[in-house]
């Protein structure tokens, strides 16, 4: 199986230039599905900390790079929305957050904020023993004993996966668009319009410069701290 990906065909969320070279690195299987960006792309093309995959492998062999609190040794490991990328030796911590246009960008945060991460609930089910299991947008499964609903967002601790905050999906909630023409925009939900049948519900969002409408699959509920404006 090839380890390369044509730049022109990468997802729009990838923070790479499409016309400078023909190929880039292909992400391994893992979290975030096809939208996951290979870690080496962030290290090389975004941060400029390495010049090659060989240098990336060396840095990873030193356990100097943590993703969601865990040392990573695979330079092709997919990185996606709301992941925490930490360089403890540099005292640098970043949250992956959608930029304008929906491309993934790194928002610098402090060490305390890097101890947990946000997840959108995409599924909820009962599992053996009567527990409730939530599945998050990146594939993470969390066992809970409180009431949460799909489309809500939760913040989970990177160490023990406990829920440390809960943001319901409802009118008045602060959201960011992560896909579509309005990707990266942040605003409050004005309206949630239910579409009969199997069609997607639409969401009206008010922003500082007006507002927009999109389908609810394209928005994620966040807290104001997750915009990066109040993390310093």
Shape, please?
A: globular
Query: Considering the protein shown, what is the CATH homologous superfamily of the largest domain?
Result: RNA-binding S4 domain
Succession of helices and strands: EEEHHEEEEEEEEEEEEEEEE
Question: Which CATH class of the largest domain applies here?
Answer: Alpha Beta
| Main pleated-sheet profile | 5 strands, antiparallel
User: Strand order across the biggest sheet?
Assistant: 5-4-7-8-9
Name the beta content range: 35-45%
In short:
The protein has two helices and 19 strands.
Describe the structure.
The N and C termini lie far apart (43 Å). 35% of the residues are buried. The protein has 3 domains: 4-111, RNA-binding S4 domain (Structural Genomics Hypothetical 15.5 Kd Protein In mrcA-pckA Intergenic Region, Chain A, Roll); 115-161, OB fold (Dihydrolipoamide Acetyltransferase, E2P); 174-226, SH3 type barrels (Roll). The longest helix is centred in the first third of the chain and has 9 residues, at 53-61. With 232 residues, it is mainly beta. It has 2 helices and 19 strands. Helix content is 7%, strand content 38%. Strands 5-4-7-8-9 form a 5-stranded antiparallel β-sheet, with no helix packed on it. The chain is globular, with a radius of gyration of 18 Å. It has helices at 39-46, 53-61; strands at residues 4-6, 23-25, 37-38, 66-67, 70-71, 78-79, 84-87, 92-98, 104-109, 116-126, 132-136, 141-144, 153-157, 163-167, 174-177, 186-193, 202-207, 210-215, 219-221.
Topology:
Layout: E1 4-6, E2 23-25, E3 37-38, H1 39-46, H2 53-61, E4 66-67, E5 70-71, E6 78-79, E7 84-87, E8 92-98, E9 104-109, E10 116-126, E11 132-136, E12 141-144, E13 153-157, E14 163-167, E15 174-177, E16 186-193, E17 202-207, E18 210-215, E19 219-221
Antiparallel strand pairs: 1-2, 3-6, 4-5, 4-7, 7-8, 8-9, 10-11, 10-13, 11-12, 13-14, 15-16, 15-19, 16-17, 17-18
């Amino acid at each position: 199986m090839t380890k390369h990906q044509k730049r022109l065909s990468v997802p729009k969320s990838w923070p790479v230039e499409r016309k400078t070279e023909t190929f880039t690195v292909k992400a391994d299987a893992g979290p975030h599905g096809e939208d996951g960006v290979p870690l080496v792309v962030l290290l090389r093309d975004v941060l400029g900390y390495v010049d090659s995959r060989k240098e990336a492998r060396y840095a990873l062999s030193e356990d100097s790079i943590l993703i969601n609190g865990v040392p990573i040794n695979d330079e092709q490991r997919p990185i996606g929305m709301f992941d925490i990328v930490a360089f403890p030796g540099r005292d640098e911590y970043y949250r992956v957050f959608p930029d304008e246009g929906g491309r993934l960008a790194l928002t610098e945060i402090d060490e305390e904020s890097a101890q947990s991460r946000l997840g959108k609930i995409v599924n909820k089910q009962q599992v053996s023993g009567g527990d409730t299991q939530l599945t998050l947008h990146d594939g993470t499964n969390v066992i809970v004993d409180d009431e949460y609903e799909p489309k809500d967002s939760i913040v989970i601790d990177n160490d023990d996966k406990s829920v440390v905050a809960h943001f319901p999906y409802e009118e008045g909630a602060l959201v960011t668009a992560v896909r579509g023409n309005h990707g990266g925009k942040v605003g409050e939900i004005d309206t949630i319009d239910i579409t009969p049948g199997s069609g997607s519900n639409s969401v009206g969002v008010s922003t500082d410069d007006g507002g927009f409408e999109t389908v609810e699959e394209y928005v994620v509920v966040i807290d104001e701290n997750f915009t990066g404006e109040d993390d310093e």
